[in-house]
């Protein structure tokens, strides 16, 4: 019985050690993150990297601003009026994250954790006429803000922590294996726990890849957002039309020059009948 009890204790101890090892490994993987905002030439943009097992598994570059409505007392201290706080994601923010096969997450904290941003990414597979195709998307955004923070909120009524969430979000949809890039501003509405308040999240200068990064610290091929593609077309279309117009003018001038040269070498028949006696 003693031997059996010792064996059971040994198995239980080994199981506990394995669980502890797995937990510690997972925690270490989640904490292997870097804020590389100092490498950006844009003072408003942050660069975040999540690495697991010594390999980059999530990269994100973007500038973010949050427009948060909040209540203050009117001058009569009876009525409430709504003010607006503009909160920007500051450089040097604290970052956490983790990566998975079909789910990855990025968390960012700033101003002594008065503000926190959580972004959840999902990878999905769809059946199309061309066969199964995989895409990834931003599926959830959560923004936690503290209206007792005096820098952005002044004399807020019912000051305290509030949480704003997205609902049924499907943003930044990108083919699997590619990164998402968009310079244009993108707006996402978040429903706040502060009654009847909607927080607006504005993203710009976005470059994100939460899955399938092949090279360390290097984005894969870019998938550009429709707004950027349209703006690029609007910028290049006048140039293309100008080149076509210039080519048409050149071709017209060449044809005219050739025609003029050919007709100049032909014998001219006199129109005045009196001149026929000098011919032949």
UniProtKB/TrEMBL annotation:
The cross-references to Gene3D superfamilies, in alphabetical order and at most eight, read: 2.40.160.110
Provide the Gene Ontology terms for cellular component. dendrite membrane; early endosome membrane; endoplasmic reticulum-Golgi intermediate compartment membrane; GABA-ergic synapse; growth cone membrane; late endosome membrane; lysosomal membrane; recycling endosome membrane
Q: Which residues cross the membrane?
A: 237-256
Subcellular compartments: Cell projection, Dendrite; Cell projection, Growth cone membrane; Cytoplasmic vesicle, Secretory vesicle, Synaptic vesicle membrane; Early endosome membrane
User: Mind telling me which Pfam families this protein's record contains?
Assistant: Lamp2-like_luminal (PF01299)
**Principal subcellular localization:** other
Its domain of life reads Eukaryota
- State the signal peptide span: 1-29
* Membrane topology per record: Single-pass type I membrane protein
Q: Which keywords has UniProt assigned to this entry? A: Cell membrane, Cell projection, Cytoplasmic vesicle, Endosome, Glycoprotein, Membrane, Signal, Synapse, Transmembrane, Transmembrane helix
* Keyword set includes Protein transport: no
Mind listing the GO biological process terms from this record?
Answer: establishment of protein localization to organelle; presynaptic modulation of chemical synaptic transmission
- The reply on keyword Transferase is no
Lysosome-associated membrane glycoprotein 2-like luminal domain boundaries: 44-213
What InterPro entries does its record include?
Lamp2-like_luminal, Lysosome-assoc_membr_glycop
The family this protein is said to belong to:
Belongs to the LAMP family.
The record's function comment reads:
Plays a role in short-term synaptic plasticity in a subset of GABAergic neurons in the brain.
> What is the name attached to this protein's record?
Lysosome-associated membrane glycoprotein 5
Q: What is the lineage of its organism?
A: Eukaryota, Metazoa, Chordata, Craniata, Vertebrata
- Gene name, please? LAMP5
